[in-house]
Amino acid sequence: DSGVTQTPKHLITATGQRVTLRCSPRSGDLSVYWYQQSLDQGLQFLIQYYNGEERAKGNILERFSAQQFPDLHSELNLSSLELGDSALYFCASSLGLAGGVTDTQYFGPGTRLTVL
Amino acid sequence: AQTVTQSQPEMSVQEAETVTLSCTYDTSESDYYLFWYKQPPSRQMILVIRQEAYKQQNATENRFSVNFQKAAKSFSLKISDSQLGDAAMYFCAYRIAYNNNDMRFGAGTRLTVKP
Q1: Which of A58, B48, B77, B111 is the most buried (most CB within 10 A)?
Q2: In sequence order, what are the residues at sequence separation of 6 or more whose Cβ sits closer than 8 angstroms to the Cβ of residue B33?
Q3: Which residue in B has a C-alpha nearest to residue A95's C-alpha?
Q4: Cis peptide upstream of residue A8 (ω within 30 degrees of 0)
Q5: Structure-model confidence comparison of residues A100 and B56, the more confident one
Q6: What pLDDT score was predicted for residue A2?
Q7: Average pLDDT over residues B89-103
């Protein structure tokens, strides 16, 4: 158990809908990262938040957004869903200090999103 | 651009034997970190081992060890005394030392352990 929690574990929805994925980081971690893992692709970095502020953006679509709340949990919002958005979405957390091998990312169990 | 290549989509090993998974990376940086993550059928991403590029000594964690060849940009994972529970996808990952939000993953190697 990495200490990172994600809810829900599974989500099935229809095209055009909007969903929210939730992540709680490990105790003491300030950074949260979101990744997408599709069947035909490896893990793709989406976005990072550090202590409530957006720190970096990766391959995140404009239909997707995220935020990190004062209690440090994070939510990833996916809207106008398309079939191709079906994937496993991972949240990871780290201390968030700049650099350092101790700033290793620990992953949650993931949320499997199926868009029908 | 930094890229990570795992040239073995699938590998298999007999239980109790040793297997080595390959990973190469491309970077112009001198200070970086390398990781191996394991993804079992549960799909959880589990950190197996990590290596600092400035360290010449290869990292080890129980039955898991790495062969880090900085000049060759190679970072292979050796699993000794393989167990059925080692069956999983293994991902090699790289990130620059000063940038903790730019972690790059390889495509993964699926390891099968035969009883």
Answers
A1: B77
A2: A101, A104, B50, B51, B52, B53, B94, B95, B97
A3: B100
A4: yes
A5: B56
A6: 81
A7: 84
Residues 6+ apart with CB under 8 A from B98: A98, A99, B31
Nearest C-alpha of chain A: how many angstroms from B81? 24
Q: Which helix (H) or strand (E) holds A73?
A: none
What percentage of chain B exceeds 90 in pLDDT?
A: 77
The pLDDT score that the predictor gives to residue B37 is 95
How is residue B12 written in tokens?
Answer: 């298999």
Contact between A99 and B35 using a beta-carbon 8 Å cutoff: no
What are the tokens at B115? Answer: 């009883």
DSSP code at position B59: P
Residue A101: what pLDDT? Answer: 60
Looking at chain B from residue 13 to 72, which residues have their Cβ under 8 Å from any Cβ of chain A?
33, 35, 37, 42-47, 50, 52
Kindly give the parts of chain A with pLDDT less than 70: 40-41, 97-102
Burial A16-40 (b: 16+ CB within 10 A, else e): eeebebbbbbbeebbbbbbbbbeee
